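Q: What would this chain look like folded?
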Amino acid sequence: MELIQFNELEDKIKNIVQEYAGLKKKNQELEALLKNKTEELEEVSKKIEGLIEERDAVRAKVDRLLVLLQDVNMSQ
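A: My prediction, written as structure tokens:
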């Protein structure tokens, strides 16, 4: 009877260890995925910042051109 209980306990412990190993592996995979996504997000954020700067530069040039056009129209 006691041998059966020890065998059952041993099986339960083995199952727990296997589950732990599986969860640990899954956790590592998720951490790697999170790291990749974080790097992608940082890259996209940098691209957005660059596009915003480019937009602002274009807007400033257009504003200067509009001012020049207004000066031309006022001269006439």
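The mean pLDDT is 94.
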